[in-house]
Amino acid sequence: MLRTPPFLATILRRPQLAQYVKTLAFNADYFYKYPKVVIDSFNGIQHEIKAGLSRICGDDDDEVREWYNNLHHSPDAITALVIIFLPNLSTLNLPYYPGIDNPLYPEYTPRVLSQASRPPTYDVPRPFRLDQLRNLDVGASSLGLCSWTFVEPLLQLRSLRCLRCSGLSLEDKDISSIEKTISHITHFELELSRISPAALIQLLKSCPNLSHFSYLYHKGPDDEAFGPATIRDGLMHLKDSLQELMLFNPDEEDGNFNMLWPLGSLAGFRKLQRLRASMRTLVGHEPAQATPGTFENGNGESSSGTLQPLREQAISFVESLPESLQELAIQNCEDTVYTVLGVLFESIRKGKLQNLTIMRLPRRIGMKIETKEAIRCAEEGKALGICVRYIL
Question: Which of 174, 181, 339, 348 has the fewest C-beta atoms under 10 angstroms from its C-beta?
């Protein structure tokens, strides 16, 4: 923000330079610290600034004047102004943008981005456009979540392909406003977001062409439990397009989790290449008791005895993986992951999952990777053409 006025002045004096600006990213560390020294800087380019604001406000001189005055104390007003003068942006990054609980909740930037998706009108015959914007990153502030009323207009930018949103708040009451089809979005990342299961399913259904989906869950005190199976239900219409899926529930880090069922089968997702989720999300909770049965050992021989429920879970998990899978990351690993790896390697030796080449195993604190079992699994994976990496 400290360099905004000189930057604007340069663009206004040499407007041909604006077409070459493709990326705009604001420094989160200074986003709220509005520099007082900019007040006089704006006065020198007042006429040019007001001409730009007219592209959004039309002939409403009072609104133009109010917006201009707000430039002297509102980061939101400045952010929107800068965007107006950069029509060829392909990447826009607004980290820690004010949330709904913030008294500086944005007004101008959502309006500019919304205006960019509208056709010409009588009042604004030459509307501001962002026809080349492909990547948009918006994040909530530490003072609150990012409301749906702010995010919804962004989804209507037809050129947009990748949207990364941190701290999105989406409830059942918002479902009726999610019914528009958002076919142009292919990459959707939701970080530390609080979304009700029903709203999440509706949001996913409105995106029929997603190839990448990432969801970092954030649970409030009265929110429902993390439901991987519900997320899978919302993804079923993407079996022919989804290439990457990442799911994470931070509550599992502290052991404070409440999850009814694991994710379930992804075998029908024929284009899925990368999968990342926690051990419990993918495989399920730790088993409580053993059950009798017959199983094959690592040499392909059948043995009678006790079939551990963990092995049953591991078998179900491995059978749920699509043949297209190339990279698998199992987060929050514990020592029980070695049983899962054993079952996975058995399946590969039988000709399944032949595209899998990389396994990343971010481990929980306390998991030992210097054991004979850990070393054996890494060597066995290498012999099968799989790079097994244990990550702290």
Answer: 181
Domain assignment of residue 314, yes or no: yes
What region does 20 belong to: left with phi over 0, alpha with psi -120 to 50, or beta?
Answer: alpha
Other CB atoms within a 10 A radius of the CB of residue 132 amount to 13
Note the pTM of the prediction, 2 decimals: 0.83
Q: Which domain holds residue 275?
A: 268-392
Q: Which of 275, 281, 274, 340 minimizes the C-alpha distance to 312?
A: 340
Inter-residue contact 359 to 386 (CB < 8 Å):
yes
Q: Is residue 48 one of the residues assigned to a domain?
A: no
CA distance 266 to 374: 27
pLDDT-derived band at 184 (thresholds 50, 70, 90) equals very high
- Would residue 43 count as lying in a domain? no
Total count of domains within the chain: 1
Cβ(238)–Cβ(260) below 8 Å: no
Quickly state the pLDDT bin for 306 (edges 50, 70, 90): very low
Confirm whether 313 is domain-assigned.
yes
